[in-house]
Amino acid sequence: MASKSFMYAAYEAVQYEMRKHKDMCWLFELTPAVASTPGLPVINLEKEFGRTRVTNTGIDEMWMAGAALGASLVGTPAITYIPYQGSQICFEMIQNHAGKLHHMSGGDATMPAVFIIELSGQSPGFAGQHSDYEADSYYAHIPGVKVVMPSRPYDAKGMMASAIQSPDPVVFLYAAGLRQLSEEVPDEQYTVPLDKAAVRTTGSDLTIVSSGAGMPAVLEAAEQLQKAGMKVEAIDLRSFKPMDTETLVKSVQKTKRLLTFDQSYYTLCPGAEVIARVAENVDGARFKRIAFPDAPPPASPEMFSWMRPNASHIVGAARKLVS
């Protein structure tokens, strides 16, 4: 076991599966299939497996998604890496084909395809046209695909392995802001379920739910609140579809208070779905959601920082809920 970055851990899972499945392929544009972590061998998928299996397609996200889907339909496991500016362009292929073909074929079609979609996480300086973190809600709305977004390297590796092994298409979202986050990750291959949330801290006063790049702020706020005497249960959603409603309901049945935190847009953000599911199952609970305003992020880092929700917003909302 060694300390590994988020992307190194995810690529390690891909490398293992590509060695196991001799016809498995990787399609990419702009971003080479390379990952590194200090003190460990560089993972270079193109160098190891060759350009026949690791293909630079050129800039055409719709074609990339369609090629990965087509390969998977004939039994070839396929991964396509969609960089931050391409998530909306490939949406139609995933929504209208990957999400429907299994049902339209009467269950005969299986599609072991993984669509890695890089989300800029609404990073300062990217401006509105490249800050598509809200894609989490877009893809979670599609029937027929699984949609996951890990927040730590351990989950990145385990969920990537599970996604590749799944017979159904998986949209694997990751926030670019987590790229260099590191922690101890096993060297051997392992899996993390694609349908389970993770309880990061336990408590009885307040439940806070987030995902992806929102989790560092949640854990920072939870630590502050714990020091102030508030017992916080922080839940990492990890999977948007299928969503682990059972874990969410069980927590709020105990705390009777739910705060959701998203860096995606306020209207129809993942937290809205979390609140709706809990409200259907828990009587007498109080709710609050925090999300990015319904406006494209500005290019100015100063204006962006003013708009983006952070740990201080969580602390303020938590104190109001518990008061």
Helix content: 25-40%
Question: What sequence of helices (H) and strands (E) makes up the elements?
Answer: EHEEEHEHEHHEHEHEEEEHEEHEHEHH
The unreliable regions are: none
Structural shape: globular
- What is the CATH superfamily label of the largest domain? Thiamin diphosphate (ThDP)-binding fold, Pyr/PP domains
Class of the largest domain, according to the CATH hierarchy? Alpha Beta
Give the beta-strand count. 16
Corresponding CATH architecture of the largest domain: 3-Layer(aba) Sandwich
Number of domains: 2
Strand content: 15-25%
Structural overview:
This protein has helices at 6-20, 45-49, 61-73, 91-98, 101-104, 135-140, 153-165, 215-227, 245-255, 270-279, 301-307, 311-322; strands spanning 2-5, 25-28, 34-35, 43-44, 54-56, 78-82, 113-119, 146-148, 170-175, 182-185, 198-201, 206-210, 232-236, 239-241, 257-265, 286-292. With 323 residues, the protein is of the alpha/beta class. It has 2 domains: 2-185, Rossmann fold, CATH 3.40.50.970; 198-322, Rossmann fold. The strands form 4 sheets. A 7-stranded mixed sheet has the order 5-2-6-7-9-8-14, sandwiched between helices. A 5-stranded mixed sheet has the order 11-13-12-15-16, sandwiched between helices. Strands 1-10 form a two-stranded antiparallel ribbon. The mean pLDDT is 92.
